[in-house]
Amino acid sequence: MLLCDFHIHTKYSDGSMEMRRTIDLFGQAGFDVIAITDHVVNGDSTLGKLAHRFRYSVTGDIFYRYISNIQEEAERARSKYDMLVIPGIEISKNHLSADKSAHILVIDVHDFIPACMSYEEIFLEAKKQKALIVACHPHHMSPKTDRDTLFLWNNRDKYSRYIDAWEIANRDDVFNVISLKKYPYIANSDFHRPRHLYSWKTLLNCSKDVASIKQCIKHNKGVALTLFRN
Ligand code: ZN
Ligand code: ZN
User: 146 alpha carbon to ligand 2 midpoint, in Å?
Assistant: First the structure.
């Protein structure tokens, strides 16, 4: 099966490592498929404005530089490690209230999607680009990690039809509650620093190309979750 991690940050947002070093770390650890998913943060809230001030967000201005950097590195990773690298973003709607906040991975993204658009607009734009939509850390996280992002889970009846998969595990957290619904699931590291390599991961039984991987996650057959430990 393919060892995969679809949630990885670099210095393009709040990750601690440059993209090339990050990709080398995963390549050397034997991964088959990864997605680079730096934050695209909303600018319409106090928290969002802070993220922009500290340059913890990919903006429209640098988006195509970010994507072409991933594509260059993807070519290198394919020849050096036979690892597939997929361009993505993490749309981050940050508000003081956890009930209003949500993070969404858009995997195999091609064009910029501003995080201040409405949820419907974001989902429809991602669908138009044929990207994979993943609801990130959708329930309470361990206190030492990020703020909780509960909007999508609390509004699942309205939005689940747009969501291709839910993170049932993120880094060290497992979201037991969301397993009560029979949604498609994946598990990711939410990688920000080297020690996050050791965390929950996804195994996929499909061929190593973007179309097959998106299909496998959507159908959620031949999918296994594993804890990758040092
Ligand atoms: Zn997040
Ligand atoms: Zn993240």
Answer: 9
